[in-house]
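Treating backbone geometry as a discrete language has practical consequences that deserve illustration. Part of our work consisted of pairing the sequence of a single chain with a tokenised description of its backbone. What the numbers capture is local backbone geometry rather than side-chain detail. For completeness, the protein is quoted in full, as a sequence line and a line of structure tokens:
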Amino acid sequence: MERTHLDRRHFLTTAMALAAAGAAPRTMAQAPATATAVTAPFVTVKLSQGSLRGGHSRGALAFKGIPYAGSVTGKGRFLEAPPAPAWSGVRDALTLGPPSLQKPGGAFGENEPAGSEDCLVLNVWTPAVNDGKARPVMFYIHGGGYHSGSAGAPSQDGAHLAAAYDVVVVACNHRLGLLGYLYFGDLGGDAFASSGNQSMLDIVAALRWVRDNITVFGGNPGNVMIFGESGGGMKTGTLLAMPSARGLFHKASVESGAGLTRLTREHATDTAMRVLKGLGLSPNELHKLADVPSQAFVDIQVQAEQGRGALIDPNDPQSELLHRANFNRPGNWGPVVDGIVLPSHPFDPLVSPLVADIPLMVGHNRDESTFFNMGRPDTFTMDDAALKARLAREFGVYADRIETTYRQRYPAYSPSQLYIAISSDVWFGNDSATVAERKSLQPAPVYRYRLDYQSDFVIPGTDYRFGAGHASDINLKFYNYDLRGLQGSGPGAEKASRNMSEMWATFARTSHPGAKGQPDWPPYERKTRQTMLIDVECRVASDLDGDVRRMWESIGPAV
């Protein structure tokens, strides 16, 4: 990814603030080799683990690859991670640490090392260190479903966000895929009681590290916001229902990932049985899991994505499709409602009572499914007949009613636009609306949004623009409009990014999102169902697309 020059006034303002805090800005001679590189002058801090050396990056200080927990290989596999070890001397925190093991191409950090089973590291970006300030902490959980991604992707680099809004940004790597979520609690007893949620417990360990260390980085451990997009939104939602996370965060934002339920013990155990069979092990040989090469678990995941292997049921023609969609059924993985680490679904039948006092933001992007159809160029050239055929396949007897409702709501839309609107609501919009409805019954406020900013990024192989597609919000909310990404490079990108990033940073600071020059963002209530539409010029909509909402509610869970 490329970067353009930062605004000169912003850079100079940030530089003066850093200098006042004892952190001199880098000179032109020390220009970074990559957009998110960490450069001199270097800064050393002292933690309980040992001394740590960071440096400058995009107007802030950055410390990368910090261990927050110990090894999870061998006998530690599928278990809760031990505490992080101490070190002697000064440890460099100038480059990214390893992401979780995953198939090639899943992680995107600049100069990021190869994936590793021992991946429990985090990154911190801050305006200054040891200056006595108590800044809001914005703790980000990366996306990529439950199987890919890392905290080092340039789109979610936290430096610009930290410098622009005087906040501390943290992001962690954690175990993914089968290594992060394989459940043996019903097969291995107490020894594997925490399995199935080891990835989520990694994130809890990172939050504990924040509680114990973030004051050194100028952050306030009593004002921590957790937020995440896509799979990160799902993980954020899961934390809301975990007793072990209680007290480690004080507000949350679930973005393009407001799934209502998580995997059941029965389905998770079925997945475990399939994996064991694929590895040639029986349920009474769990002790041998420590000796299985870690790549064997990744290989099983990759095979499943290709429609073959241990996780795919040859007798179920829907098995591959449902696996790809991370449905709550056998053969899939993700957080498990085990009754211990995760006592209940986070949002079903109601929002977990553990977060009755926690303010929440929840929302999605208007055109989410452009992202998921990028490998299907025929989606973007549909005529009426193709649309009807696609809807009939996906929605059966409800297809005509769904099409009629959306045509009435969006009379100027092309067939392709109608399909994008329908599928975006099915996968993202409906769940975010349901979470807002249910959270509004609790004392703490909930703020619902929809990103409407239209990216000018053209989908490869088509002349169709990405619009407000899935993940186009990441660069915007991190104030990384200047880094190439799905948000495009249209004339409004900087303003939309300013609006969104300021709303998020303001929520982190005050528990009420807002941005200067934009409308006041009211809490979501069932009477008005007010939703912030985020764009170059934002607006508040009451009962957003109410006719569409009522149609989906009348169909119920059948779709």
Q: What stands out?
A: Confidence is low (pLDDT under 50) at residues 1-29. The longest helix spans residues 415-439. The chain has two domains: 1-358, 370-474+494-558.
